[in-house]
Design goal:
Helices cover 41% and strands 17% of the residues. By secondary structure, it is an alpha+beta fold. Among the domains are: 2-79, no CATH class; 90-152, no CATH class; 330-360, no CATH class; 370-527, no CATH class. The strands form 7 sheets. The chain has a 3-stranded antiparallel sheet with strand order 4-1-5. It has a 3-stranded antiparallel sheet with strand order 10-11-12. A hairpin with a 5-residue loop joins β15 and β16. The protein is globular, with a radius of gyration of 27 Å. Mean pLDDT is 88; it is low at 418-424 and 517-528.
Length: 528
Amino acid sequence: MIEKFKNLLQNFDTHNSLRIAMADINFTFPEDCLYPCLSVKIEGFGLINPLEGRTVATLSEVHLALYQGARIVYHEAVVIESYNGAYFCRTHLLRLFNLRNEAKKNDQELLQLLYKTYTNSLYGKLAQGIRERRMFNTREGNTKKLPKSPITNSYYASMTTGLIRAALSSILVALDELIKEGHAYKIISATTDGLLYGIGEAKLSVADTLEMGKLSEKYSSIAEALGSGFKKFRAFHDIDPVLNERLLKFPSIRLLQISHEAWNDPEYIEVKHVANAVLNVKTRGQVGMYVDGDTSICTILAKAGHKVAGDKNEQAQWMMEHYDDEAIEGYEFQRLSSIQDIISDTNPIDDLVSVTEKRKISLDYDYKRYPINATDTAPHKDVNHFRKYRQSADYLRRLNQRASIDAVDYKFQLAKQNVRKTGSNSEFCIRHILRALLQGVKPFERPQLSYSRLATILREEKVTVSKIKHSKDSVFTPNMISDTSGNRAFIRKVLRKLGYKTQNNYQDFLELLLHKKISNPEDVRYLD
């Protein structure tokens, strides 16, 4: 079967229907690949996309991985040869698709959400029981394993999600290619079947994305329209013709286009939201605002699982305020009593009523990719690399401390070396010295040297021009370097190389860089 799978790969870019084929593989992407397309499932954390690992991937995903330069080792493959290109439930899905589109055109929000839920539930039934999941049984008052449905089919379910993952990854790869060519794009977040990306306002404004004719019929301004929930956008290929043209070279995107054209729908990519200011918190946590002078309207809101009271703008304000909390705060929210609450033997609730619940706020980054500076991330090398980052973050949160990027990175560097607070870590030291130096944090002064000259001076410390550029934009946090004799000697050596003179053995620099002793234990617990 592996050879048949490879033969399908060779002709995949000519296919006009989706073949059912998947393979168990090991993969390794090039080190400079920013958006590897193959996903690995980690129990309790969902999917991550590392540079190397083992996974089961569909034909469309493996084809894209090879395009990205990945090395693939095959263990096993499955190809459904009797499949004749017919689509499961196509007529039924087409009817639901048309009904939902009609509801959208008529601004029937509740009805379109109903059709969306109905359509999505069909996939839910295809995948039901493939992975063990327990559900509460109201008849018996306990949880039971959810059985397979009459139409459970792991092949159909895998190909459905595999094509969408490949299509989403294709968009990321296309954007990355265009960025490297000098286009003004910025990838912000991507998950499941959607992504958030930016275009320089010199190239595209919020007004350019809207159907201004329909907007002017009811509203006097863009702010008024967006504040009232206006969501009539121009077609994607008109809004962003550069990206649209690049995408059509990717087979998974073309398959999506073919399927939509079969339903007389030219929009295989749909614009859902626009904003001109974005706060990206984590994978499913974003706040997007339309800002015009003193007016700010929330247009994008993903609350990272939090249940927040108030309207959309009030919820967005809550997210932005708590994003900057120094400590982990708690909050209360209202929910309806569940069936378990009502029939509980110990403390039953009499009816379907509002119940108050307490929860901790969780707005720390989720580290599904690791930060390389204040605004950019990179894929993890492998699953173990991800786990060490998450374990570092979870350790801090267990101490009721925010898992800030700098604090987690420090903990990760120590965990990677299997040390605690002892031992010299020159790579970590030089990173924080460079941040303070490039940002002119006193007593440092911004260098008058070129980046290449500075890299030459610090060549022994493995400093490159790229590391210097990243240091300029990264967040500097004082007192992050472990206070050891080795680290003190290293810092003094670097300062001498940089030409700094001293009368107090560089004590003022050490005060800035080294973490404080236990005089303030609350600030350094996470270093243990």
